[in-house]
Every structure is written in C-alpha cells, then in structure tokens.
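This part of the workshop introduces the protein records we will be handling. An example says more than a description, so a record of this kind follows:
>
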Amino acid sequence: MADPPVCCRPCATCLLCLYSCQWITAKKEKRRGLKTTKCDCSWFLFLFCVFVFTLVWLYFAIIILNDFHNFNEFIFKQRKLWLDWSLVLLIATATLITYSTVLLVLALCLQLCGQPLKLHWLHKTLLILTALVVAAAFTGLGIKWAEEWRSARISLQATGPFLHIGIVGGMTLLAWPLASFIYRTCNTGLKVFLLLVYCTAMIMLYLAPLGITSPCIMEENQLPPKPALVGHRGAPMLAPENTLMSLHKAVDCDVQVFETDVMVSADGVPFLMHDEELTRTTNVQAVFPERAALNSTAFNWTDLQQLDAGSWFLERRPFPTAQSLSAGDRYQVTKQRIPSLEEALEAAKQSNISIMFDLRPENHSDYQSFVNATLEVILRSGIPLQQVLWLPDRFREQVKQQAPSVQQVYGRKRLQNEKEPLLHVNLPYQDMSSEEIRQYRQDNISVNLYVVNQPWLFSVLWCSGVSSVTTNACQVLKEMKHPIWLLPSSTYLMIWIVVDCTSLLAILWAFLLLK
C-alpha cells in the first residue's frame, strides 16, 4: 500500500490551525503521536450531518421565497412592523451553510493530507448551535407554514433531475477522502461498514431517476399553451396593491384578469382593500390616529377618500422592485387613493380585462348587504358580465339569479356527483397535483392557481397544463417565452446514463489511484 498523500508543512499547519484552532506543525504532531480517535470520527460524522441538514434548509429557504411576502404581511399584522424578512432568512442561511461547508472542506483536506481531525471545542459548540437553529427553523415551518412542505414536493419536479446530478457529483468527490481513510485505517470492521454504506448510497443514487417524475420531461410538441396571467391585486411589485395604478401596470404586463379584494364602507360604497385594517397600505394612523385600529368597513367613503394609498409603497418597499421606479412612477405612486369598485370596473372595462374579487370580511353581520351593494355596482357599471369573475361562496345562488352571466369561480375541487359542473376553480398551487391539472384540462375546467411568482414554479405549472396563475410578478412571467427547461424522455435517459457511468469511473479511479 502506498503512503497516504502528505501536504507541504505550511499547508498542513494552516489547515490544522483553522480546524483545530491550534498552531501545531505537522512534524510536532507526529512527534506527539496525535491520531484521529473514534471521538474525532464521531465529530466528523456530526459535521457531515450538520452540513447536509443545513444544505437541505438552504433548499427550503430558496423554495419558500415564492410565498415569503405572505410571511411579511403576517408579521406586520401581528407586530405592526414591516421588514423584508426574506433578506434576514437568506443572510442567516448563507452564514450557516458557509460555516459548515468551510469546516467540512477543511476536514476533508486534512484527511487527504494524512493529518488528524482534532475539532476544536469552539467549532463543536457552533456546530451544535447550527444544528439547533436549523432544527428550530424546520419545526417553525412545520407548525406555522405547513403548506410549504407541499411546495417543496412540487419543487422537486423542477429540480429533481439537477439535484440528482449534483448529489451524484458530490458523492463522487467524497470517494477521494473516503479511499484515503480506508487505505490508512487498520480497523477492518470500520472499512467494511464504510464501504457498505457508501456503495449502498451510490446504488440508490444511480437508480434514483427511476423515481423522479416531472411534467417538464416531455416532447416539445406536447407542451401546453402558456398559462394566462392574473394580476394579484394588480401588479404589486410595480405599484401599490389594489390601486388604479396597479391595475394599469398589470394591463401593461398583458394580464388577462385583475384580481382584487372588495370591502364595503359604512355608507355602502364597495372599495378595494385586502386587509381588515387600513394601517399597512394607507396613512390612516396619521389622518385618523384614534380610529386606525378599526375595521376598514367602519369608515365611510368620504373618510376613505382622504387617505393616501400610495406613499407607503415607497416608504416600506414591500418588494425590491420598488427601489427602481422611475421619477414619474414615484410621483404617480404618491397620488394614489383607495379606488371604489365602480372605478376599478370602469378601468377594467376600458382596458378590456376581466376582474376577479373576494368580498371581505365574510364573517361580517351585514355580509348580505355587502353582496347587494356589490351586485348593484356591477350591474350599473356597464361592464360585460362575462368579464366579472365572482369568488365569494356566501349568497352565490342569489348572485346567479340576479346576474346569471357573471362567471362563478369556486375555491374548491369538484365533488363526486356534482349537480352543476364547475367551469372555473381557483386554488392554492399546493392543492393540485400535475395529474389533477391534466384531468381538469381534459374535462374543460379552467384552473387558476395562486400565488405563483418564481419562474421555476411557473414552468412546472405550465408543463402541467394549468389554465392561468395569479402572480405578484407579472412583469417577470410575461417575459417567459418557454419553461426554464424541457427535456424529451430520451435525452433525459441519455443524461442519466452518462452521469452515472462517469461517476462510477471516477470512483474506481479514486480507489485505484490512492491504493
């Protein structure tokens, strides 16, 4: 057996200093007879597990960015504090993954250089803290945001083939320090155990593509039409949400539907507003400080018209795009007021787009009067009723009788033995599988899924055949002329074979070269 590779003394000393926090030369170490003990091996295994654990959390953090604006709104509702928490998430996650990665690389280099793995107690403490922080993050995600687990499953349809290639590559590189360790250790049982674990893991990885499914593995000619875009409260990345400016920006993004939320003022005027309180999207605290905590429906229309519904967008910057507005757009933002439903319907009619809305709050004692007031405005507006998409479930039958041409959109899946077939459904994107989307499409049921902001998610839903998506990022999705990736099954099979064969040859080379 050849001697293990030995680094130059300065390199070994530097690696030991960073990993063990001790300035000991390789020569002194040999004289002292320091060796990697079972305890040191256990800490290396713990380091590897923390690295994988943190890497998985990084993947989740990237995936949940699609829905993070909802989290920002939730925190504001609870604490009245606005901050783009996605930046905090990404900075913290990047710090943790960088630290664990650097430690792991140091350990692997030390192993290749034939040096002992003496992890310093400070690194041990920080590794335990890293593991606890990531575990707490996963626990919080499971308790408060459980639907993101379904988002992660959907994301694997977009990233599965590439994750497979990346993991195979990483495990292949791991063959070098593993081979070095196996040839140097005298413990036969440990050798057999490590080889069995490694070989089992690689075999599973080589066969993993058999279980990878993605709607984007298809022939080019099978790709469904691009989903239509529904502007979520307009174009909220380009203008204050639920304002006429937001509607017009959405029209510029070629959206086909303006999605909004309607409330009814104390004197019976329907207006656009999402939150039950006015504090997030208006200056109500400055104009009516003693009434700021009241429900939006407690204000009459005259009071609502006094509020600035735009300046908050420049002050809080709910999306990074708010920083890049032109001077003209910034001026226009400051002039925005809360629009009435009548104004929104007129703008939709002039722009020839549809309007879809929820009527809030559904638990209000005067909800039926809200429905009546809203219907009255719709019928008086002169907008073609086919351009109105009605979401509220309560008093739906009344709406069908008074305005039969209004399109009824349901926030649920179809039921068995449905008396009246559904024509339009509006659901969270996590609630429908690719198979269900295809089946609804075959049955001529229009499926709109919300809220879809990231190109990877839009690509998966496009390949699945969804009819439309509600989005905050209409300016981004508008520019997509094709899914991010589309692979014929034959091409994917060829890539799978090439990757696995290349990996196998590299592993054999590592073991033969270091023998």
Remarks:
- The chain has 21 helices and nine strands.
- The longest strand covers residues 257-264.
